[in-house]
Amino acid sequence: MVERALHTNLAAGRWHTMTLAEQLGNIGSDVGRAIRARAQHDDVRLQAALDRALELFDLTMADERWRGPRRREISRAREVVCDFLVGDNEYRSTGESLDAYFFAYGMAARRDR
Q: How many helices (H) and strands (E) does the chain have?
């Protein structure tokens, strides 16, 4: 079975023209949607937002510009998001802490435009 990309324009290459701050800021938008859906016990919206966020995480980790420590941080952020949204929350994250983490990247991306 072939999975279709949720972000077809981004998956086609546009994602790799963005800065890391832009990529993580965009991921944060979908993470924020997933957090709000989880708080509202809307499993359908939660799953859709999480699927989009995970696809963007994967596109970011596939970006050859982010090798080494950057890729490890991206991978850890993905792990923490999954742990909070659908895991046992072993990292003791909160919706607020995740929003704050990604918000900083969104603000940096805007500042750098």
A: 5, 0
Number of domains in the chain: 1
Strand ranges for the chain from DSSP E: none
Chain-centroid distance, C-alpha 16: 15
Is there a domain that residue 5 lies in?
Answer: no
- Whether the predicted model's global pTM rises above the 0.85 cut: yes
Q: Which domain holds residue 60?
A: 16-111
Residues in the chain where the model's pLDDT stays below 50: 1-2
| CB-CB contact of 33 with 45 (8 Å) | yes
pLDDT tens profile 39-68: 999 999 999 999 999 999 999 999 999 999
